[in-house]
Amino acid sequence: MNSSTVSLTDVSSYLPGPPIGADYYARFAESDDLRDNVMFRAPAFRHHVAPDESAIDMVERAAQGLIERHGEDVIAGADVLITHTQAPDLPFYGAGGGIAHRLGMRPSWVLDLHNGGCAVFVLALNVARQLLASGSGRTALIAVAQNAAGQVFDQPGVRRKAQASVPGDGAAVGLVTRSDQSPILDIECRTYGEYAGEMTLAPDPPRKWWQPGPGELCIGFTEGKITKVLARGNRQVPEVALAVCDRIGLSSRDIDLLITNQPNRAFLRNWREALELPAERHRDTFDECGNLFGAGIPINLDRAISDGQVRSGDLVMMAAFAHAGDFAGAAAVRWGGRV
């Protein structure tokens, strides 16, 4: 083994509660100028975090698959913990310290990433790979929790909006090691700072998120913003995936399984067509889980491994963009199978 080789060794995931059907939102739907927009065509099902379920709870449940396959000592002994929570349970705090405590960890590095958004798993892989390759440890955990669907989007005022029926909740934990089991071949991360801050909260009446007031927090979508996001997302995800393909000397048609974030059906279709891949080589759980935000890639990878869609030796490409297009990333892994 090359001492600097870093692998995405395994991943496990968790979906909270029973599936919630589209009819749940149909009961609350009101007239909405954006209801027919391709961004907000509802999935058949999604899952919601329970009212008393924290992001730490979700990650602990997601980690059980890794513990069963690799043992408690491997997880507790990880040197690096990288986390992301879509809707932090407490202001100011990331979930890293609480997750480390719950999993019995004493890591040298605890990093809470907020800027990665829907592409955070790729960003976290990049950070973990750099730290482990530099000698800062032998094992890293990446823990991602998407918990906004059952909290932010299910507020009584927000769930009447078209945007509310699309998100779903879930969590996943990835195990990254210095090994050649499932080597990370290459990663591309790009920041588009000119688009930072374009995804905004829009309570009615307007206020800052921390100020008291009657208006519930929701995403400030407009037709103009949606048009820009669609254009950026359609462009950015294929661009970063093709950049990785170019550096590893392969065509996009050599990708055995493409796993992306899944904001809506239009993006999923456009991305696989841009990369010249058939539908069966692009993992799509949108109608089962909805938009899982940053947890989408690792949850879909876990499901693909578990049901045999990805096999030992396959080239897996993970690609996503974040927020209104301020970040995008792609990572290629040569999957070596679970051991």
TrEMBL record:
Residues 115-193 form the Beta-ketoacyl-[acyl-carrier-protein] synthase III N-terminal domain. It comes from Mycobacterium decipiens. Keywords: Acyltransferase, Transferase. The keyword Transferase applies. One of its GO terms (molecular function) is 3-oxoacyl-[acyl-carrier-protein] synthase activity. It comes from the Bacteria. It holds the Pfam family ACP_syn_III_C. GO terms for biological process: fatty acid biosynthetic process; secondary metabolite biosynthetic process. Residues 245-335 form the Beta-ketoacyl-[acyl-carrier-protein] synthase III C-terminal domain. InterPro entries: ACP_syn_III_C, ACP_syn_III_N, Thiolase-like. The lineage of its organism: Bacteria, Bacillati, Actinomycetota, Actinomycetes, Mycobacteriales. This is 3-oxoacyl-ACP synthase. The keyword Transferase applies. Gene3D superfamilies: 3.40.47.10.
